[in-house]
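chain below, 220 aa
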Amino acid sequence: MKKTDPGRLRPGGRFGRQAEAERNDLLVLNAARAVFAEQGPHAPVADIAARADVGIGTLYRRYGSKEQLLQHLCAIGIAQTIADLQVALEAEGTGWEALAQYMAAAVDARAGAFAGLAGTFSLPDEVSTANDRARGLAERLLRRGHDDGTVRADVTTLDITHLVEMFSRCPRRTEQDDHARRRMLTLALDGLHAARTALPGPQPDWADYQRSWGAPGRPS
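prediction:
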C-alpha cells in the first residue's frame, strides 16, 4: 500500500513566498498531528513550531491565534483526506483492497489526530463543507466493498473514521512503535473482511459525532 505524499497536494509551478508558505503548512500539519497524538489536545503551539522547525513568531504572524492555526490545519488536512479517498476510489482491485489502501494512507498521515480537539474550536463553513464531501467519498468507497461482498455488511463509514482516529493517536517514538502499529492495523483491516459474527451494539450515529465538533460555548 502506497504511503500518502502530502507534497502532491501542493499545486505545481508556484515559487517564492507562496511556495514557501505551502511547504511550511505541510510541515506544521505533520508536526501538529504528531504533537497532538503524543501530548493530547492541550499541546502548546510552541511544541508544534519546534517539531516543524518553524519559528513560533512566523506562525502567529500568519494565523494570529491558536484557533486560526487549528482551523487552517483542519482545512488542509481534510483536503489531504479527500485526495486519499479519490486515489482509493480510482484504484483497481476489490472494494476491501481499495478501502485498506485508503485506511493505510490515512493512518500513515495521522488523519484523525485532531479528533481529541473536537468541540474546542469552531470549524469554518468551508471545512464543514469539505468534511461533508469527504464523508460522501468514504460512503462511496465503503459501498464498493459492500457491493462486491468483500467488506462486512455491518461496517459503517463512521466505524472507519473511528479506526483512523484510534490509530492516529498512537505515538511513534521508535521503529518498534511503527512496527506494532502496522501489525495492529493489519489485524484491524482483516476484521473488515466479510464475516458472520455481527458487530456488538447499535451502529454509531453520525449526528452524535457531528455534535462533538460543535463550536465551543455554543449549543450544537
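Confidence is low (pLDDT under 50) at residues 1-13. The chain has one domain: 14-212.
thats it, cya
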